């Protein structure tokens, strides 16, 4: 990062309130570059908190054009937010007031169910005015996403059902009514499975205000909250818990180590994470060989820090060069960099599943992704091919860009680019190498802590086989 900013005198960055990575890393650069001017902009962040973090710097507030929004809270606790949202939407739609609706739901599944139930119940009402129900979430194909920006025909109202992507990332003209389910999905580290996972949580008060504000962008609006005022005031957090306090920090630890930070426990974080989380991340990096016994960065760790990937994927990519399958692993880690490449349009789920089975490689999701990319490449990276096979063309283009970026880094690091051809067993061994290494160390730690006899490494192998050789099983034993 510091090298990338070397030729710049001013850097303008924008990030939401809960983002933690940029302030932490930029603080290190600013501390070394007193001549660098840093401008931070956001529509939702706590400006006083950021100003204090960067040394009580001045702040500027630029007022935007907004209209008054009247907020209505539920009288009773809502047990089913999908049912509650559908009822509220129908109540609004059957009133003579004009204006489009925006419903906030936690995720794709809830959005699709809400759209389906709303359409069904509307069809049961005699002489109901027409309503265009439109879903919007990140994995929806671009042509379907664009529909929310199109004007509804005269005499017809739009009802957009969205994730929190509609809080700040996009603005739709004509929204006069907002229905807030009160929930969102957050990325949270799960120590049992050793990775981050999306989980449903109540929104914060800051999120709730941001959602309500979407009704006042083009005129006076109304916001209907599917939670009581008491819940809003007493149960919802003032702001979303920052990512650094709820996700795996291995990536951040690796980057800070590469920036020369020695004592992470004493490091000046804007939102200090739990010390156990930092220590656990350092332990994971030590198992991968990125840190030595003193916590210092190893040559392997310095190589891993060059890649914009999670440490296990960095390790797998570097090892793949030694095993002669780096071209295949390069594709796999690039495919893993996007949330998903398959989509199941409503009403065509079975057809999409049948097509997906054509790419399935038994017992390996990683090789399934590799097979899919190779087929796309064989068809000249065709967008039409993606459409016919229920594959996100936009996501695949992103994969291709990431692959080229990672390839450039590998070449700059002088890592070998080799292909194993059709011998995918080599790829399987490469993918499993990191997991086996982690299992071996964790089983060894468990046995030593419990003072179990350990005659040789073969004892570890036997226990590893008996526990199915997975880290998740090792934790249970």
From TrEMBL:
It is an enzyme of class 3 (hydrolase). It catalyses: ATP + H2O = ADP + phosphate + H(+). Residues 88-260 form the Helicase C-terminal domain. InterPro entries: HA2_WH, Helicase-assoc_dom, Helicase_C-like, P-loop_NTPase. Its EC number is 3.6.4.13. It comes from the Eukaryota. GO terms for biological process: developmental process involved in reproduction; mRNA processing; RNA splicing. Coiled coil: none annotated. Keywords: ATP-binding, Helicase, Hydrolase, mRNA processing, mRNA splicing, Nucleotide-binding. GO terms for molecular function: 3'-5' RNA helicase activity; ATP binding; hydrolase activity; RNA binding. PANTHER family: ATP-DEPENDENT RNA HELICASE, PRE-MRNA-SPLICING FACTOR ATP-DEPENDENT RNA HELICASE PRP16. Belongs to the DEAD box helicase family. DEAH subfamily. PRP16 sub-subfamily. This is RNA helicase. It comes from Plutella xylostella.
């Amino acid at each position: 990062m510091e090298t990338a900013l070397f030729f710049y005198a001013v850097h303008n960055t924008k990030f939401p309130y809960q983002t933690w990575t940029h302030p932490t890393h930029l603080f290190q650069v600013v501390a070394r570059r007193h001549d660098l001017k840093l401008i931070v902009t956001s529509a939702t962040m706590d400006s006083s908190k950021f100003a204090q973090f960067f040394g009580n710097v001045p702040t500027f507030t630029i007022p935007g054009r907004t209209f008054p929004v009247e907020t209505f809270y539920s009288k009773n606790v809502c047990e089913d937010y999908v049912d509650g949202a559908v009822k509220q939407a129908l109540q609004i739609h059957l009133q003579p007031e004009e204006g489009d609706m925006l419903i906030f739901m936690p995720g794709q599944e809830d959005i699709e169910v809400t759209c389906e139930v709303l359409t069904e119940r509307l069809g049961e009402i005699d002489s109901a005015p027409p309503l265009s129900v439109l879903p919007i979430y990140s994995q929806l194909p671009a042509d379907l996403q664009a529909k929310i920006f199109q004007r509804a025909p005269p005499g017809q109202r739009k009802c957009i059902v969205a994730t929190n992507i509609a809080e700040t990332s996009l603005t739709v003209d004509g929204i006069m009514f907002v229905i807030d389910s009160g929930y969102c999905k957050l990325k949270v580290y799960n120590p049992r499975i050793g990775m981050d996972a999306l989980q449903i949580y109540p929104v914060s008060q800051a999120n709730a205000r941001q959602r309500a504000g979407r009704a006042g962008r083009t005129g006076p609006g109304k916001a209907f909250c599917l939670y009581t005022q008491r819940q809003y005031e007493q149960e919802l957090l003032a702001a979303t818990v920052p990512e650094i306090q709820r996700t795996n920090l291995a990536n951040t630890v690796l980057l800070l180590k590469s920036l020369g930070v020695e004592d992470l426990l004493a490091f000046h974080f804007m939102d200090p994470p739990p010390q156990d989380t930092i220590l656990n991340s350092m332990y994971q990096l030590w198992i991968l060989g990125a840190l030595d016994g003193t916590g210092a960065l190893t040559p392997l760790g310095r190589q891993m820090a060059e890649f914009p990937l999670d440490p296990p994927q960095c390790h797998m990519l570097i090892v793949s060069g030694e095993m002669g399958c780096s071209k295949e692993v390069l594709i796999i880690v690039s495919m893993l960099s996007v949330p998903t490449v398959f989509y199941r349009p409503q009403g065509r789920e079975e057809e999409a599943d049948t097509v997906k089975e054509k790419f399935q490689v038994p017992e390996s999701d990683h090789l399934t992704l590799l097979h899919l990319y190779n087929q796309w490449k064989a068809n000249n990276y065709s967008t039409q091919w993606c459409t016919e096979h229920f594959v996100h063309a936009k996501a695949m283009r992103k994969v291709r860009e990431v692959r080229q970026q990672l390839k450039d880094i590998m070449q700059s690091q002088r890592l070998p680019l080799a292909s194993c051809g059709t011998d995918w067993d080599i790829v399987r061994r490469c993918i499993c190498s990191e997991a086996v290494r982690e299992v071996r160390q964790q089983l060894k730690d468990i046995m030593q802590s419990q003072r179990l006899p350990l005659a040789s490494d073969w004892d570890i192998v036997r226990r590893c086989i008996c526990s199915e050789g997975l880290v998740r099983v090792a934790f249970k034993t």
